[in-house]
Design a protein that fits this description.
One of its GO terms (molecular function) is DNA binding. This is Tyrosine-type recombinase/integrase. By secondary structure, this protein is mostly helical. The protein folds into two domains: about 100 residues, Orthogonal Bundle (DNA polymerase, domain 1), CATH 1.10.150; about 170 residues, Orthogonal Bundle (hpI Integrase, Chain A), CATH 1.10.443. It is about 55% helix and about 5% strand. The protein is built from 14 helices and three strands. A three-stranded antiparallel sheet has the order 1-2-3, with no helix packed on it. A hairpin with a 4-residue loop joins strand 1 and strand 2. Helix 3 runs antiparallel to helix 4, helix 6 packs across helix 10 and helix 10 crosses helix 13. About 25% of the residues are buried.
Length: about 325
């Protein structure tokens, strides 16, 4: 009976609540996987307890299990806690759970994970990457267009794969993408990106407005995984000593704009971030750039001279003041 309840609640949450919120299929699938993993833990460790009898202590025990037994990091654990919190909040909202029975209602706040600075490519590395696809083959033109679009706009791999022919307006130099939560936004195109996309479109030939813009060898739309594979391939061919992915190109796009003086609000809108907080990480990247620039200042070449100018003996004010004699 308990397993039936778990099945019903998880299906209700993912297929009704998450779909109504407009979440992407990949996001919904990730939520379903996380909830199923928690259910499996309950079946083994908590004697198959039903979801309406889970306590905050049970959830804490599961998170500790993820940390010690599964070796999950802080980000993964925080994400799991957030999924469980949203799951139980939805069950309360849909009338399947009393508010006082919500195990996540008074759940303690977890320590936020240490935010790592994003890995970005240098301008020279980007150039090598863009030049890696051959320019004399149909696949090479397509792949060069994909790389130029990812770096030139900062769109996600899923957004790139989801582009239809009608979404790409080269005369107006813009594309229309569907981001997280189904939100649409228009992204302007640099003239150099327009040239690369135009070359690919001419070579590819006419397609229907609803067809995918980027086509596979068999004339089908490219998947998100295929976009990742293309980027990985040319990163290897370019011999770039970094772990490169479409998301790293997204980081590179934003970081290079910050270095050129573009304000964060504009970059937020280009990236499709719903909060400026997500964009502020790129300020930390430029702070690292400033420190690196300070280290390169030519005063470092004069260090020896400066040392020679410093006195070798203590100056008067460096001596401790004499003690007053008492008695």
């Amino acid at each position: 009976m308990n397993s039936i309840t778990w099945d019903y609640w998880i299906c209700l949450y993912t297929q009704t609540h998450c779909v109504a919120r407009g979440l992407r299929p990949l996001t919904i699938a990730a939520y379903r996987t996380a909830l199923r993993q928690f259910e499996s833990y309950v079946q083994v460790k908590l004697e198959g307890r039903s979801p309406d009898r889970i306590t905050a202590a049970d959830v804490l025990g599961y998170l500790e299990h993820l940390r010690t037994e599964r070796k999950n990091g802080d980000s993964s654990i925080n994400r799991t806690a957030t999924i469980l919190k949203n799951f139980y909040r939805a069950m309360v909202g849909m009338g399947h759970l009393e508010p006082r029975a919500n195990p996540m209602a008074q759940f303690p706040r977890l320590r936020p994970p240490t935010r790592k600075l994003p890995v970005v490519l240098s301008s020279e590395e980007v150039q090598r990457l863009l030049e890696a696809p051959p320019g004399d083959t149909a696949i090479g033109l397509r792949d060069r267009a994909i790389l130029a679009l990812l770096y030139g706009t900062g769109i996600r791999a899923s957004e790139c794969a989801g582009l239809n022919e009608a979404d790409v307006d080269l005369s107006e130099r813009e594309i229309r993408v569907r981001g997280k939560g189904g939100h649409e936004r228009s992204v302007p195109l640099n003239s150099s990106v327009v040239e690369v996309l135009t070359s690919y479109r001419q070579q590819r030939g006419e397609v229907e407005p609803r067809d995918r813009f980027f086509q596979s060898r068999r004339g089908q739309g490219m998947s998100r995984g295929a976009i990742y594979e293309r980027v990985k391939k040319y990163a290897r061919l370019s011999r770039i000593p970094k772990e490169i992915s479409p998301h790293k190109l997204r980081h590179t796009f934003a970081t290079h704009l910050v270095r050129r003086g573009v304000d964060l609000v504009t970059i937020r809108d280009l990236l499709g971030h719903r909060s400026i907080t997500s964009t502020q990480v790129y300020l930390h990247v430029t702070a690292e750039d400033l420190r690196a620039a300070a280290d390169q200042h030519p005063i470092g070449d004069l260090a020896g001279l400066l040392k020679n100018l410093l006195p070798q003996t203590k100056l008067p004010f460096q001596h401790a003041p004499p003690r007053r004699q008492t008695g």
